[in-house]
User: Fold this.
Amino acid sequence: MATVINPSAGPIFIDATTTQSVLPYTSLINHLQTSIPTTTSVIQSPIRHSHQTSSSSSSNITNNLLLMPAWSESPTTFPYIGVKLVTVHPDNSALNLPGVHASYLIFNSVTGQPLASMDGTELTVRRTACVSALASHYLSNVHSKVLLMVGAGSMAPHLIKAHLTIRPEINYVMIWNRNVGRCDNLVENFGKESGMDGVRFEVCQDLESGVRIADIVSCATNSETPLVMGEWLKAGAHLDLVGSYKPSMRECDDEAMTRGRVFVDNEHAMVEAGELVGAFERGVMKTDEIEGDLVELTKGEKIGRRDDKEITLFVSVGSAVVDLLSAQLAYETVAGKP
Assistant:
């Protein structure tokens, strides 16, 4: 790991546009694949802090402040401290504003110097998508050709592009959302993008039909009721669950959880992801039935996909460790390595 410190220089600001340019999907996926096995043992990160800041005056919806810190215990090998600050204001849609805003701060862990602040929202969507794609590298069928995107929010285009990066044989992408208009917009936008000529994008009118033919199903919704049913998953399918980050949320049913081999991004998924928390509480799964996590997959300690017929699932709730690794790549790319 390179140590990038200029004592005479102040912290730099990396805006959303720059974050996009310095964290292309291929580079970030490769960085995570090589860094996760070697650095996670020296990075500490507590479970995310969540604080209710206020309640909406027009509803019972609460506003929240989330903090996700991480720091290196070995400054000579990985000299960084980082923290992501997130505000969640669900009623912002009425103001035509995003409901989630985030900033990321990175410091040098040797001196405590602030090194950079960056757009935390762009950092989050890119690292989330690349974590799913990295897991797909180990868990999905290498010859996957059909991708179903469940949800058409801010995460959807990033997940689609990241999965296409890791599985270049995909030539058919379906998009399903309760609001069909958002699907139409996303399909239209992809039709205008360069480099997508060999991929057909369509709105998925019927979720069950879409799931039944998909090689990869990626979900990024706020649903609190199951959307993907296990009986719909075809042999060899890979189910990628990104949306659920609290116990009340749920994107698939118990049958989906028990039909396949389940992997998680990190141990926090066991107490945060509604699909897992609910399955444990209902007695349909035990914690020791989780096959492994992303660290074990990247280290080769756990085997990913074993054949073309098995069903695999990946549950991701996010990680301050991956935030820090992504911020490291962005900072070192902008600041330059010595």
